[in-house]
Amino acid sequence: MRIWGIALPSRTPVSFDVDGDRLRASGSSTSDGLWLLPGLTDVHSHPGTEMPGDEYSHEVFRRHMLTHRAAGVLTVRSPGSADPVRDRADDVDLPRLARSGQWLATPGRFFPGAGRRIEEAELPSAAVEEAAFGWCKVIGDWMPDDPPVPLDVLTATVDAVHAAGGRVAVHCQTAEGCRNAVLAGADSLEHGMHLDHSLLPRMAAQGTALVPTFSAFAKSIENIEKATDERLKEWIRGGWEHAFPTARAAFEAGVTVLAGTDTYPCGQVAAEISWLIKAGLPVEAAVGAGSWTAREWLGLPGLVDGGFADVVAYDEDPTENPEVLLRPKQIVLRGEVVV
Ligand SMILES: [Zn+2]
Question: What is the pLDDT of residues 140-179, one digit of tens each?
Fold first, then answer.
């Protein structure tokens, strides 16, 4: 099979032969005007469960991943899973998965009964265990007035995981929780609602990414009026308003800002890309945040000779018209045509 078109982000005409699950440059450079991405990427999705505390279901996992695939999402990072089976080989017909093991929740933090519950002193060793497949996910804070995971504990956790070759994603929404995640040297801040902008240069310098998950908060903001806790309402509303200038300021400061949906149904990363554009990211950066930039950040190659044969083709340039992301013309995963 031969795939040709204009590759993004380089905008160069390319032509590849599919060789197993790899792309091989074919030498010809004809273009029929299709625009090619190495698939979309959702860096914050939890396939396998729908509600906090649900038991993991492999059937649900497959359904979620196939929903991603049908939308052209060929790479997913799962920052926290209820999957107790950590040595299962990935299904070859499903999108590539970056796994983080189970959510790591210390007392008073996270949904009751959800995640792996541990004491603060156990966090570094538990994080190393969960990071066996690359990532681990730490619940760094929870409700607005509760203390976050202390900085010394979080720092020891990040250091231990890095020493073992893993990476750390930290859930943080309070200003203090975000600050501790940055000072501890986390690899990504998940949500980061009340992140203080003075921390952005440090994030950029040390390579801490920001995943604002607008899609998830768009739902919270719809539901928040029903809540009776005025302090919580004010905190959520304030965080929502703050998240837009934060995403833009982060991008401008050189922080890697990425698209993660953290919501259901799966397969909606194009909507998260739209939120990033609303926040003020240039369109090309927003599309990259949900495609090539995220893929590269996860250690996967783009559309290059020898790279994986993961390609989604569009009729129009998505950096000119991001709405075209909702209408993939062709989807190829691991060298197999799926649409
Ligand atoms: Zn999440």
Answer: 999 998 999 999 999 999 999 999 999 999 999 999 999 9
CA 172 to centroid of ligand 1, rounded, Å: 11
Task: Read off the pTM.
Answer: 0.97
In the chain, where the domains are located: 1-38+301-339, 39-299
Task: Check: CB of residue 330 under 8 Å from CB of residue 46.
Answer: no
pLDDT digit string, tens, across residues 246-295: 999 999 999 999 999 999 999 999 999 999 999 999 999 999 999 999 99
Other beta carbons less than 10 A from residue 307's beta carbon: 18
Determine contact, residues 275/21, Cβ cutoff 8 Å. no
DSSP state at residue 239: H
Looking at the DSSP assignment, which residues form a beta bridge with residue 311? Answer: 332
Tell me the CA–centroid distance for residue 297 and ligand 1, in Å: 18
- Per CATH, the number for 1-38+301-339 is 2.30.40.10
CA of 136 relative to ligand 1 center, distance in Å: 12
